[in-house]
């Protein structure tokens, strides 16, 4: 922005995505970006464009989504958090805000992201967990899923584990730094860190790991699909959105 008084902010945002069409602004549905922009516009007295660190699908949640924006009427970060949160719906909250340099970009400056996916394996899913945990009735083999997850780690072409984003991609190669599967009672948590993720990649990877956990696929099948570098087929199911959280965005190298 040309105004010399303009200041750039970095905000860490948490949201419950259950009632939203994802982060991205859409003409025919309500995205979280639009809600945040409208609140900031109220404070600014004019339109404010908010740039997000990534896109999230409808129904997906975030604990550490990062965005940047400029205000021509700067507000101290602590005051901004209070002002924004008092106007946002309860499902969206600014957790932190800070001034950043004009060259900071929430998406382009990111060095990596962590997603977590939550599965509740039991006959009954407690109702209060329903918006945030994917329910699985069948017993899951966590050891087999852990072995399968290890095959994802490293730099691979993930075209077999991504949906068509309906836009041209420069590459479908991504680098996964770590992928763990841990169980505590009925709760199973999938944690994956990487330099970036393709459209529905995390849900596709978890969906396939669940097939492994149910005994429908062998752990080695992950390597076979990665090596094939073929577009995704019905063999790779997309896990439901409600179990997925964008957990953290990293701006320092993870490896």
Describe the structure.
The chain has 255 residues and is of the alpha+beta class. Helices cover 21% and strands 29% of the residues. It contains 5 helices and 10 strands; from the N terminus they run E-H-E-E-H-E-E-E-H-E-E-E-H-H-E. It has helices at 32-44, 77-87, 142-150, 201-213, 221-228; strands at residues 7-15, 51-52, 61-71, 92-100, 112-121, 134-136, 154-157, 173-184, 187-194, 244-250. Strands 1, 2, 3, 4, 5, 6, 7, 8, 9 and 10 form a 10-stranded mixed sheet that branches. A hairpin with an 8-residue loop joins strand 2 and strand 3. Helix 3 crosses helix 4 (201-213). The radius of gyration is 19 Å and the shape is globular.
Keywords:
255 residues, alpha+beta, ten-stranded mixed sheet, 5 helices, 21% helix, globular
Question: Topology, pairings included?
Answer:
Elements: E1 7-15, H1 32-44, E2 51-52, E3 61-71, H2 77-87, E4 92-100, E5 112-121, E6 134-136, H3 142-150, E7 154-157, E8 173-184, E9 187-194, H4 201-213, H5 221-228, E10 244-250
Parallel strand pairs: 3-10, 5-6
Antiparallel strand pairs: 1-3, 1-4, 2-3, 5-9, 5-10, 7-8, 8-9
Helix pairs in contact: 3-4
How would you characterize the largest beta sheet?
10 strands, mixed
Radius of gyration: 19 Å
Overall 3D shape: globular
Arithmetic mean pLDDT: 93
How many E strands? 10
Short description:
With 255 residues, the protein is of the alpha+beta class. The protein has helices at 32-44, 77-87, 142-150, 201-213, 221-228; strands at residues 7-15, 51-52, 61-71, 92-100, 112-121, 134-136, 154-157, 173-184, 187-194, 244-250.
């Amino acid at each position: 922005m040309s105004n010399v008084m303009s200041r750039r902010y970095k905000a860490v945002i948490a949201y419950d995505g259950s009632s939203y069409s994802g982060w991205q602004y859409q003409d025919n549905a309500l995205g979280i970006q639009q809600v945040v922009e409208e609140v900031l516009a109220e404070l600014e007295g004019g339109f404010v464009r908010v740039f997000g660190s990534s896109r999230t699908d409808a129904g997906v949640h975030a604990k550490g989504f990062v965005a940047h924006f400029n205000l021509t009427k700067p507000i101290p970060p602590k005051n901004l958090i209070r002002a924004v949160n008092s106007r946002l719906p309860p499902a969206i909250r600014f957790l932190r805000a800070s001034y950043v340099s004009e060259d900071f970009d929430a998406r382009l400056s990111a060095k990596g992201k962590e997603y977590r996916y939550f599965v509740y394996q039991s006959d009954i899913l407690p109702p209060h967990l329903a918006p945030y945990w994917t329910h699985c009735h069948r017993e899951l083999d966590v050891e087999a899923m852990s072995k399968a997850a290890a095959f994802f780690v490293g730099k691979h072409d993930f075209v077999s584990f991504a949906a068509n984003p309906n836009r041209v991609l420069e590459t479908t190669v991504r680098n996964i730094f770590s992928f763990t599967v841990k169980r505590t009672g009925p709760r199973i948590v999938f944690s994956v860190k990487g330099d970036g993720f393709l459209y529905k990649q995390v849900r596709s990877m978890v969906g396939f790991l669940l097939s492994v956990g149910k005994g429908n696929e062998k752990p080695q099948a992950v390597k076979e699909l990665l090596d094939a570098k073929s577009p995704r087929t019905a063999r790779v199911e997309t896990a439901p959105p409600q179990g997925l959280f964008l957990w953290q965005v990293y701006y320092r190298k993870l490896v």
